[in-house]
Amino acid sequence: MAERVPTPVEPTAPPPGEHSLAGALSRNIEAVARRRAEDQKSASPSIKLAIRIGRLIGRMSFVYANVAFYALWFAGSRGWLPGVAAFDRDLYLVWSVASVEAIFLALFILILQNTAAAAADRRDDLNLQVSLLAEHEITQLIKVTVAIAEKLGIDPGHHSEIADLQNDVAPEAVLDKIEREEPGAA
Q: How do residues 53-103 score in pLDDT, each as one tens digit?
């Protein structure tokens, strides 16, 4: 499956008079729902089918259907069902059917998991971008607050923490430190 390049979701202006958190929250929910619908619509027919099958086999009704199927098979193979002659006494055929079923079920589950992991990766990327943007905005607010305090003749306290907070965080430096601090790092 070709990697789809995400397109940015353009924020829409709130309707007149709607400047509350509820309005922003509603717009965000709608944007996420639109993106999910676009992602589902753009999936290939084979991926859509695999996802539907993966969701179906993840339900208890599928488990019950399998239990019933194999119980009936076992009873029929032994000749215990009225009108059904014994047909698979050594259960070789049912083991073959179960093995093939297991292979395909595993493949459908893997496709479903890969699709879910790709969606999770996109959400993680979005969360990182929003966090970095918020961090940058907060840094700018700290700079403005310190400038206002100085203009008003208030000593903002030139502690090293305030000076550090006026600098944007470099994500690369944070990732490098995390990697150095992880147990088992070289």
A: 999 999 999 999 999 999 999 999 999 999 999 998 899 999 999 999 999
Asked whether residue 70 is assigned to any structural domain, the reply reads no
Position 63 in a domain: no
Q: Is 134 helix (H, G, I), strand (E, B) or coil?
A: helix
CB neighbours of residue 56 within 10 Å = 12
Q: What one-character DSSP code corresponds to residue 7? A: P
Give Rg (Cα) of the chain.
29
CB atoms closer than 10 angstroms to residue 112: 19
Region of 109 (left: φ > 0; alpha: ψ -120 to 50; beta: rest) is alpha
| Beta carbons within 10 angstroms of residue 72's beta carbon | 13
User: How many domains is the chain partitioned into structurally?
Assistant: 1
Q: Which pTM does this prediction carry?
A: 0.66
